[in-house]
Amino acid sequence: MVGAPRLDEARLLMSGAIDYPRGTLTGMKRLPLLALALVTFGCNQPKTFGDAAQDTATRLAAKAVPPDESIPVPPVEACVGPPEPDLQLVARRSAGITELKIVDLVLGDGPEIELEKYATVNYCAMLPDGSDPDDIGGFVFATNMRPGEPRKRFKLGTEGFMTDIVEVLPRWLSGMRVGGKRRLIIPASQAYGPEPPPGVRVPPNTAIVVDVHLLFVGSLP
What we know:
The protein is an alpha+beta fold. Helices cover about 25% and strands about 20% of the residues. The protein folds into 2 domains: about 5-65, no CATH class; about 85-220, Chitinase A, domain 3, CATH 3.10.50. It is built from 5 helices and 6 strands; from the N terminus they run ααααββββαββ. Strands 1, 2, 3, 4, 5 and 6 form a 6-stranded antiparallel β-sheet that branches. The chain is elongated.
């Protein structure tokens, strides 16, 4: 069995830190020590820390698994509409929307929303002037889905949420689970009525469409 001092001496000889003059008794140790070093540490032993790091990086890169491009990337959710509202179409459709309509677009499979729990949503609030009669959501007047918009976490109490847009009452979200998407088609009488607040691009007596995507439900803010 080779002792630790002998291995240390062989390592130093391989690195060039020590040498022995040829033709001396001590120098005669050079050949067996070199043989020991080659067997123990290998011919390609890195001499510096940089060499060792490069060698490790090369070996890791060789083992890296390339990404599987056959796996589809989920689309980025968007909230887009026409640049300007069609006010005539808005007025005509709003006159025909007299009752609240709730449509589940996607059924979630996560925790169910509850009163006094905290939740995070994406929302997209629109006027009913979409070009598709089966998808009347059109001009976007409020959303938190634009780049840089924060997703605020709210506590679902009796006052609902999104009061800066329109009050979304808890009963309108009842039964939603995380991952679910719901569309609320809200008549003017339950939206802004005859006097929308200043700064909101919603005409008087206009129905609105609000899409809600439930992202989180929990007990902590």
